Amino acid sequence: MFRKRNGEINWRNIILIGVALICLIIGVILLLIDPIKNMKRQKLTDDMLESIVEGSQATFVVKSSGNEVSGEEFEYYYGEEEVGGSQVDYQTIVAELPDEVVLTALGSIKIPSINVDIPLWDDATIVSLRYGAGRLKDTADPGQEGNMTILGHRMRAEGKLFNRLGEMEIGDTIEITCIDGNKYVYMVDTIYEAVLPEELDNFIDIDDGLGKQVTLVTCTPTGVATHRLLVIGHLKE
To answer: Which domain holds residue 50?
Structure first.
């Protein structure tokens, strides 16, 4: 195979086979990068949730790079990404992040109907949303009057973070357990399946006459993120 009829080595075939093997190895590595990253991120998220539920820890220091969510650069977060009324681009935000970031847990969020049980962070930033859901800055606290807005990724992996949010129905419950042990249960009464990102202000910056409301926000369709899915509920008294 590697020799010509005259007995000389066919270096051309050897080089071609070598290049093919290198391409195959690179392809396998690229295919494994996201699954390995997702497993690492999930393990860290599970460990943090366990500490939050046990009440043994409320703040966590994580690196700002290394556990990025695929597609997060295309999503619209509000929060710290809004500066002076205009959206800052993803690369600028990432470049300005410190090497380590402190995450502060508000508690946990559980949605029984879609098997969600993840940390709820006291801010919705690029880093915090990699490890759970985040309450949008300056929105209502759990159990208080007003609209508590919670953001989460629509992961491609089945069942991860807000991946299954589109399966929720009217009457489902959203359980918020705070770090102090207080628990608040909201019942879903409104679902908006496709809201344009620029229209989110109409659903988020509302404070009066809502009662004790929670609004869950994630991207839709999965992997495309042109619109936002909103699930709204009110506190069960």
So the answer is: 11-235
Is 17 inside a domain boundary? yes
| Residue 168 CB neighbour total at 10 angstroms | 21
Element spanning 110, H or E: strand 100-111
Q: How far apart are CA 57 and CA 41, in angstroms?
A: 18
The number of folded domains in the chain is 1
Print the SS3 string covering 182-234: CEEEEEEEEEEEEECHHHCHHHHCCCCCCCEEEEEEEEECCCCCCEEEEEEEE
In tens, the pLDDT along 183-199 reads 999 999 999 999 988 88
Q: What is the CATH number of the domain that holds 47?
A: 2.40.260.10
Q: Which two tokens stand for residue 184?
A: 């608040």
In a domain, 142, yes or no: yes
Instruction: Encode pLDDT of 143-197 as tens digits.
Output: 999 999 999 988 766 668 898 999 999 999 999 999 999 999 999 999 999 998 8
Supply the pTM of this predicted model. 0.80
